[in-house]
Amino acid sequence: MLIIDGISEAEQIRSSIAVEVSRMKESTGKVPGLAVVLVGQRQDSLAYVRKKIMACHEVGFRFSLSELPESCTEEEVCDALSNYNKDASIHGILVQLPLPQHFDEGKILNVLSLEKDVDGFHPLNIGNLAIQGREPLFIPCTPKGCIQLLLRSDVEIVGKRAVVIGRSNIVGLPTFLLLQRHHATVSIVHAYSENPEMITREADILVAAAGVPNLVRGSWLKPGAVVLDVGINPIEDPESENGYRLIGDVCFEEAVKIASAITPVPGGVGPMTVAMLLQNTLEAAKRALHFT
Amino acid sequence: MLIIDGISEAEQIRSSIAVEVSRMKESTGKVPGLAVVLVGQRQDSLAYVRKKIMACHEVGFRFSLSELPESCTEEEVCDALSNYNKDASIHGILVQLPLPQHFDEGKILNVLSLEKDVDGFHPLNIGNLAIQGREPLFIPCTPKGCIQLLLRSDVEIVGKRAVVIGRSNIVGLPTFLLLQRHHATVSIVHAYSENPEMITREADILVAAAGVPNLVRGSWLKPGAVVLDVGINPIEDPESENGYRLIGDVCFEEAVKIASAITPVPGGVGPMTVAMLLQNTLEAAKRALHFT
Fold first, then answer.
1. Rounded to whole angstroms, how far apart are CA atoms B2 and A275?
2. Which of A68, A159, A203, B262 could form a disulfide linkage to B194, CB 3.0–4.6 angstroms apart?
3. Which domains does chain B carry?
């Protein structure tokens, strides 16, 4: 039984990124720059942004944050993005999602320059991820982190049955597309699926990204399955410092007895997502600066 | 047991398109126009183009064909496309695929105006088909025809298990995306899949698009499954007029005993593909002419 340690994998990746940043700075006098546009004050969004700031600091990236009140207009968000599009010191831009409900997410993301879309959510990027023979400029961070964890844990993907639970634009769908690029036989299970337990039990590789705490029980798993738990669900816990703690979509205590490998929550996929964001931003900077 | 009659379904669709064309002509003085760029002389491509010409003629579309020799340059193909892009009497353009091997298909398809991409193969269209909450300008014709056959045969899709065999950019992948839009639980089986027979046997709805004659045997089917056979494979037949006949990816004689509904080859999905191309071209013309 392998507990896949996302924290230490992410640390290794950050170390090699830091080395590349030093090399880039020495040779070009520049460092990669990441900009985040944050609308409103959601606690989880603030926590994610803090993690990104810390990670950028650690590897020597420039970081810029544009904070807008929840009451701001779509135009103000688009203006913030346009300014970052034009800013040569910024190579990667992301809008911290979810946006408040009254915003048209698609319209706002359309403003973002393709070359700086380090989240990889632009439809042209997703299309190029889907189409065989094309290459997207960026692969979305969480799916990319999932695949990295599989590859670094020597999990065979080609020909294996993979099940993705959840079909969000951010995780489920691009994870399906990426697993298929790696030649897995992939199925997506979602809220309308009949008998999700039976389908999930067919998986050699399971990616749980439903956002439902403890959805996947031990009985849902094929013995020896590899389980990547993308869920980060806060549940009340009076004994913890903040009054809550984070659990995944998979019932960890049951799953460890049946899976051959599993990511914990926290400390599994989460740290890898941030590491992949750094990697995408580094790639964007290399392209912009013609640095290899 | 239902033999799904693609010929008569397509005929009904063409009839209603013809009515709309008359209405359009009366009101705007214009009719939808379709242009095809054909490179080389492949027998199957010529046959497909002939079918498109006949269909356009039947519903009252304008049709334009640009034939180029196999020895032509990429630039000449792009020039032909650019001319059609600018031609206001042409609302839909397609490049008859496959192109000869030495062409960069992606590069050529990029030239095509998004608003006239009636095949729906542009990465932005595929991305918008993949992403929930977005709408592609056009849905690729064969997948759209498959869904139409299911809907017109009153096959329930929501929550059902669908298996797509084959993951081509033209059929397999967009069919997956479209079935998922209709809330099926979809898996893609491909050349690397281990145990494709077992996975296929889980399907309530099977779309076979592998291009391998008689790949799917009776034993591959769940009793009562609905089977859409997209394969069009020529096999030698000395008794037939041309020395060959067309068969599907599914062994029809065995499948009819087990499936609840099936499309024949020929006369199933094929005619619907052409009907959907007409429908996409009509939509393109309506948008261009602001005609509703």
1. 53
2. A159
3. 29-113 (3.40.50.10860), 141-270 (3.40.50.720)
* B125–A126 CB contact, under 8 Å: no
Within B193-265, where are the H helices? 196-200, 252-255
**Residue spans of alpha helices (H) in B182-263:** 196-200, 252-255
Q: What tens digit of pLDDT does each residue of B163-201 get?
A: 999 999 999 999 999 999 999 999 999 999 999 999 999
Which chain B residue lies closest to A122 (C-alpha atoms)? B127
Q: How far is A88 from chain B (nearest CA, A)?
A: 26
- ipTM over 0.90? The verdict is yes
Angstrom distance (rounded) from CA A200 to CA A205: 9
Contact check, Cβ <8 Å, B180/A167 = yes
Write down the pLDDT at residue A241.
87
Segment B105-163, tens digit of pLDDT: 889 989 999 999 999 999 999 999 999 999 999 999 999 999 999 999 999 999 999 99
pLDDT tens digits along A168-177:
999 999 999 9
Residue A59 has pLDDT above 90, yes or no: yes
- A125 contacts B131? CB cut-off 8 A: no
CB atoms A130 and B106 under 8 Å? no
**Residues of A at the B interface (Cβ-Cβ below 8 Å)?**
105-106, 122-128, 130-134, 158-161, 167-169, 173, 177, 180, 183, 185-190, 192-194, 196, 199, 202
The whole-angstrom distance between residue A57's C-alpha and the CA centroid of its chain comes to 19
Among partner residues B133, B169, B194, which is closest to A160 by beta-carbon distance? Answer: B194
Which one-letter DSSP state was computed for residue A131? S
Q: How far is CA B123 from CA A122, A137, B94, in A?
A: 11, 13, 15
Amino acid found at B67: E
Beta-strand pair B33-39/A2-3: unpaired
Tell how strand B161-165 and strand A62-68 pair up: unpaired
pTM of the model: 0.96
State the average pLDDT for chain B: 97
Residue A272 corresponds to which tokens in the numbers above?
A: 């890898």
* Nearest by CB: B185 against A124, A160, A187: A187
Q: In B, which residues are within 8 Å of A196 by CB distance?
A: 185
Residues of A in contact with B156 (CB under 8 A): none
Using the beta-carbon criterion (under 8 Å), do A185 and B188 form an inter-chain contact? Answer: yes
Please list every residue in chain A whose beta carbon sits closer than 8 Å to the beta carbon of residue B134: 106, 123
- Which residues on chain A are in Cβ contact (under 8 Å) with B189? 185
Q: Can you give the pLDDT at residue B149?
A: 98
Q: Band of the pLDDT at A42, cuts 50, 70, 90?
A: very high
pLDDT(B220) > 90? yes
The pLDDT-based confidence of B241 (bands split at 50, 70, 90) is: confident
